[in-house]
Amino acid sequence: EKGEYRHYMLKEIHEQPAALRDTLTGLFTEDRVLTAILGPEAEKRLHEVQNIHIVACGTSYHAGLVARYWIEDIAGLACNVEIASEFRYRRVAVPANTLLVCISQSGETADTLAALRHARHEGYLATLAICNVPGSSLAREADWRLLTKAGPEIGVASTKAFTTQLAALLWLSAALAQTHGAPPEITGEIVRALHGLPTQVEQALQQDADIQRLAERFANKQHTLFLGRGPLYPIAMEGALKLKEISYIHAEAYAAGELKHGPLALVDESMPVVSVAPNCQLLEKLKSNLEEVRARGGQLINFACETADMQDQDGITHIHMPWVNSCIAPILYTLPLQLLSYYVALVKGTDVDKPRNLAKSVTVE
Ligand code: M6R
């Protein structure tokens, strides 16, 4: 079933263009969001939403963190994101007209399911499951479901489930914006970016060989830092989780602006630092953060847009990514980080598809 691929994880990384195409089919016209997928009342109910709470675990939680940037920026609605195992055991203040969104690949994660059940009597306007398994408990128990169509994900490390969750969440952000009267140019731009996404993901995957070459540098490292800003900060978190999970190298992610507040003390020649820096208004700021790392002898690997005009220099390697609309950059920049962790794990000889101590689906708390 792995076909030409050595591991399920690599196969699943390469399935992402198709998984995204399938997930996005039927969600838009050429330039408008179609909300009917959530049911006949959806348009009206989405219009009523004033707040969003997102709950999930692990990689799905990272998808939620990206969504917060999108929802607040694109739809202008307040959004909180919380780890399900925390949410389920505390009293949550739920403002009027709040939509609860539970994100889970499997739809059987014990904490996420318990969070949905816990929320039942908390006065939410509606509950939405973003899920990859149609018949799962989460998908059945939520008021609405938005199914990702990633197909079965066998590798314990989540890859195609994550990027399809992000696509679904960008759709949700655009749907909320549209139902709250956003100008059609705003939603139209997102819809067009999503239409082009599968092809751009295909292009980004062609960097496979460049990334494989970088993996050697991590072979005898114990620790790595990942940096990002804005919606790319949760992507750095996801990159760090992936590396930890399958190569057993300790990795931590920071919002780049936090460097000086502590982690810079860790940086020396033996600390690789990975950053994700698409061409956006935060790039100049990130450049100065990167300079701080380089000045301390840190080995930097920076994934940046080819238009960003960043040249390799001592201690900095840039991997150039194709230009994309900034709204889909978090999805695109996930790919090189998945590939990086995969190839580092190969160098380390770990069990890529079944990392030690982990299960694919965490159905007990
Ligand atoms: O099935 P779920 O999305 O609810 O799973 C949540 C986490 O257990 C999962 O994302 C986990 O963090 C992955 N192994 C990460 O690669």
UniProtKB/TrEMBL annotation:
Does the record's keyword annotation contain Cell inner membrane?
A: no
**Per the UniProt record, which EC number(s) apply here?**
2.6.1.16
Where along the chain is the active site annotated? 360
Gene Ontology biological process: carbohydrate metabolic process; fructose 6-phosphate metabolic process; protein N-linked glycosylation; UDP-N-acetylglucosamine metabolic process
Please tell me one Gene Ontology term that the record gives under cellular component.
cytosol
- What residue stretches are annotated with the SIS domain? 42-182, 214-355
Per the entry, what this protein does is: Catalyzes the first step in hexosamine metabolism, converting fructose-6P into glucosamine-6P using glutamine as a nitrogen source.
What is the name attached to this protein's record? Glutamine--fructose-6-phosphate aminotransferase [isomerizing]
Encoding gene (name):
glmS
Q: Which residues of the full protein are shown?
A: 244 to 608 of 608
